[in-house]
């Protein structure tokens, strides 16, 4: 299993520390964690790192944990009904 790139870049709480936890790198391996932090910063870029730092320094910051449970928002099919192509013989007017 892996980590989705969108989560790495777009989630402001995802940091090199989170990645180290996911990779099971113990806190005592400081040189390895420092190397991972440098590679992580190079991977996500300056702008994303700045946004992650600003979010981390904000009051009320809750760090992302490896055991966090997130319930995704369910999308209904009604939001996409306008994208469906209608057949020429299909009536757009409803009787009821």
Automatic annotation (TrEMBL):
One of its GO terms (biological process) is neuromuscular junction development. One of its GO terms (cellular component) is presynaptic active zone. The keyword Transferase does not apply. The keyword Repeat applies. Keywords: Receptor, Repeat. Coiled coil: none annotated. PANTHER family: LAR INTERACTING PROTEIN LIP -RELATED PROTEIN, LIPRIN-BETA-2. This is Protein tyrosine phosphatase, receptor-type, F interacting protein, binding protein 2a.
């Amino acid at each position: 299993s892996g980590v989705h790139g969108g989560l790495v870049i777009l989630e402001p709480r995802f940091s090199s520390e989170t990645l180290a936890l996911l990779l099971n790198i113990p806190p005592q391996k400081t040189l390895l964690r420092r190397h991972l932090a440098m590679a992580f910063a190079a991977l996500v870029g300056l702008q994303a790192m700045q946004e992650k730092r600003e979010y981390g320094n904000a009051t009320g910051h809750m760090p992302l944990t490896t055991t966090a449970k997130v319930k995704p928002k369910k999308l209904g099919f009604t939001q996409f009904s306008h994208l469906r192509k209608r057949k020429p013989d299909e009536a757009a007017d409803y009787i009821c």
